[in-house]
Design a protein that fits this description.
The chain is an all-alpha fold. It has 1 helix and no strands. The chain starts with a helix and ends in a 37-residue tail after the last helix.
Length: 57
């Protein structure tokens, strides 16, 4: 019974490692080209002047 438990445990750990990409590209990312840093929208967030702190009433 312990042997069966260890086999199932090792299989679960291996499936988790495969899904997370420890053995290469994860299955969820296969066939996808990563975007280059220059292709990302660098101006999506604009920073302005900080708002003044409002005192609680």
């Amino acid at each position: 019974m312990r042997f069966l438990f260890l086999i199932v445990l090792v299989a679960n750990v291996a499936a988790l490692a495969f899904g997370q990409g420890f053995f290469g590209t994860p299955p969820s990312e296969q066939g996808r080209d990563p975007r280059q840093l220059s292709e990302r929208n660098q101006f999506a967030v604009t920073l302005g002047a900080p708002l003044p702190i409002q005192q609680p009433r």
